[in-house]
């Protein structure tokens, strides 16, 4: 593009930006941007976080708490409205404490991105029904930034991607918009490590790894994360290595969970309580890391990320059969859990059909209300197909609960299937179940009091115990 037409374009964009500013401010969607400190004021870089979810919002909040001017971009206006008011759109202790104390300006007109120095892409990386990675969110976000950013900006991808994605997908998008990577734009990857519901580890204290296409991008990125996170930031040898770290750490977890899930299935035949065996193995102070069997592996990370590597390796003709096997074992756990329930009902000479079965927990993990890939959904699907009369209670997902309280679901149920180890369910006393005449319990997260429940005359089975 010749210089003068580029300048004309710049003028047009700059002019339109201030027009947008007025409109957005009028609509009340965004703060009045006119008080944006320019870089010359000696202020820190202006940050744009794309995707105000579990990953982007905590990151935006911590950057704002460290004095950055932070802008949150999302297409969900309702979410932006809540964030503007300092309200977290989802239940997350760390956020609910920090958000009211910081200022995150929100916007949804991408042309404002020209005002910003660092763009951090935190959009989801789901897999489709065939478990093939869906890159649309990343491609759309990258295009939006590429078409609206100012020259010299830093772009950091936090979303989980397979090794090679930044080179093969993201970089070309910026080049197509006329940016020379390493000159007009610096592109890096810093895989997210958010652990929802964790009261100890959060975005402010979890170590990170960063990778980039060039030294300048690597330094800018490392400097940025070191300025907001009180933990080591490790520079990887390439952007591809940084992408591989996240995939590896989550595949490691999926494989280890599959290992104990397989043991749970075999030890159950040998009358061995696998959770006691894991506790025993955990007394070894080195070279062992406990994982626990359960009714299934859910969430937007562990059951999803291995597919990125499985699919990527296929391009090179490599079959990650170990990863695939682990995935199939973990995917089989809901059905294995229903088979345990069926065993107990057979002992009571009760069919699944028309029996009142209470499902405790919908969320994929304890103390959060997140249904993504939750095993509970698979359990409900299987039990519905078998004609069960289901009652559901999850205090973190009231909208999808059919019972309004624990007391209510116990009253309505003959048998209980615990699918999420929320703190509200852990160690419910045996007499509580007894009083409600519960006849059998399947403990999908091995968190109930097996001994006393059995002593009270209720049939009890856990996963592997
Ligand atoms: N699960 C088991 N057995 C286990 C651990 C988990 O069945 O021993 C199940 C959980 O019930 C859940 C699923 O696996 O359904 C995933 O559990 P998770 O604890 O791994 O929770 P996530 O999905 O929030 O995973 C996050 C991940 N963090 C990132 O991807 C940045 C993961 O890397 C962390 O290891 C994990 O938190 C964590 O340690 O809690």
User: What helical percentage do the residues reach?
Assistant: 40-55%
User: What is the gyration radius calculated from CA atoms?
Assistant: 25 Å
**CATH H-tier superfamily of the largest domain:** NAD(P)-binding Rossmann-like Domain
In the sheet with the most strands, the strands line up as 3-2-1-4-5-6-7-8
How would you sum up the major sheet? 8 strands, mixed
CATH topology of the largest domain: Rossmann fold
Along the chain, the helix and strand elements come as: HEHEHHEEHEHEEHEHHHHHEHEHEHEHE
Which class of secondary structure composition applies to the elements? alpha/beta
Overall CATH class of the largest domain: Alpha Beta
Give unreliable regions as ranges: 29-39
Number of domains: 2
Bound molecules: ligand SAJ
Strand fraction equals 5-15%
What is the number of strand segments? 13
Discrete helix count: 16
What's the average pLDDT? 91
The name of the CATH architecture of the largest domain is 3-Layer(aba) Sandwich
How far is the first residue's CA from the last residue's CA? 69 Å
> What global shape is seen?
elongated
Describe it for me?
This protein is an alpha/beta fold and 465 residues long. The protein has 2 domains: 2-240, Rossmann fold, CATH 3.40.50; 265-465, NAD(P)-binding Rossmann-like Domain (Rossmann fold, 3-Layer(aba) Sandwich). It contains 16 helices and 13 strands. An 8-stranded mixed β-sheet has the order 3-2-1-4-5-6-7-8, with helices on both faces. It has a 5-stranded parallel β-sheet with strand order 10-9-11-12-13, with helices on both faces. β12 (440-443), α16 and β13 (459-462) form a beta-alpha-beta unit. α8 crosses α10. The longest helix has 29 residues, at 239-267. It starts with a helix and ends with a strand. It binds ligand SAJ. Residues 192-196, 249-250, 253, 257, 291-292, 294, 297-299, 301-302, 364-365 line the site of ligand SAJ.
